[in-house]
Specification:
Layout lengths: L4 E3 L7 H11 L4 E3 H10 L13 H13 L20 E6 L5 E6 L21 E4 L3 E4 L4 H7 L1 H12 L3 H8 L1
Parallel strand pairs: 1-2
Antiparallel strand pairs: 3-4, 5-6
Length: about 170
């Protein structure tokens, strides 16, 4: 099993590519903050301004959350506006050699406490891939996925319990 992750980065346009660099070009599994960014820059990734991730809609969501004293997901459950799609993104892939991969990227919760790390960069919580069974990318409330090791649990139920993907997901959720 190979894995790479980054967290607490705000100057990288595509953190998933940085996570892949960690997996392929370092002896580590996870890097965070400035160290992760400097590693990515040293390997040719472009430095971007954090403002590229800010939109008027997300700023309005932040102001509303602060006013209510709430912490909210990056997707509120409201109907999606096709022009405003954003938030957590997950992908799973199968290559021609039969290798599975999973990736998840997010800006996280709105109005979260500084320093909060969600499930996306935690292997087994927000994402997991195992060539023997399945590739999983989770979106939703990260703390729930972390406590349950949701992505890994789905794979384990398939690998050791003989459950189908649908059955494993139903049991975990």
């Amino acid at each position: 099993l190979k894995a790479g992750a980054v967290a607490g980065v705000s100057h990288l346009r595509n953190p998933v590519l940085a996570a892949r660099l960690v997996m392929e070009q370092s002896p580590h599994v996870m890097m965070i903050g400035e160290g992760a960014e400097n590693f990515a820059f040293a390997h040719g990734m472009e430095r971007v301004s954090p403002e590229i991730f800010s939109t008027p809609l997300r700023y309005e969501q932040l102001l509303a959350a602060r006013e209510e004293g709430a912490i909210v997901l990056d997707h509120s459950g409201a109907p999606l506006d096709e022009k405003q799609k954003m938030g957590t993104v997950g992908a799973v892939a199968l290559d021609l050699d039969g290798n599975l991969a999973a990736a998840t990227s997010t800006g996280g919760m709105t109005n979260k406490l500084p320093g909060r790390v969600g499930d996306s960069p935690l292997v087994g919580a927000g994402c997991y891939a195992n060539n023997a069974s399945v590739a999983v990318s989770c979106t939703g409330t990260g703390e729930v996925f972390i406590r349950a090791l949701a992505a890994y649990d789905i794979a384990a139920l398939m690998d050791y319990g003989g459950l189908s993907l649908a059955e494993a997901c139903e049991r975990v959720v």
